[in-house]
Amino acid sequence: MSNHVSALAHKLIKGLKFIAFDVIRRYHSIVPPFVECYAGGPRNIGPVFKKEAHLLYALGRLFMPNYIIEIGCGASTIAFAEAIRENGRGHVVTVDISESSIKLCTRRLKLHGLLPFVSFIKGSSNEQTIISQVADKLRSGGGRYLVH
Asked: Does the global pTM surpass 0.70?
């Protein structure tokens, strides 16, 4: 019996190592194109912590959610929208209280051709009406979602 358990444990560890290496391989194949595309020049996404933007993009690519719900729009919205475009499915729903932030983000999304992948909800993320709007989107979309 203990040999059987040991063999199962060995198979499980081997399987987890395979999954971990696959995730690392996929991360390294996904992040460089994002870095090349958005690392300055006319396509620059604005002031951002580049490593965090790369991570958010990679998460969007790896999890392939139907929806990404985001509180506050900005560079992370662009990273998520690019992941959604590359995935070929999904949508970003971002909640922001600032009209000027929404306008700036909208301009940047248009510049990169990413506006069709994003919906904005203007308001405070702790207002019940806003929470209901987000919940309705999740219910209608089904599947996986990522919250940032």
From this structure: no
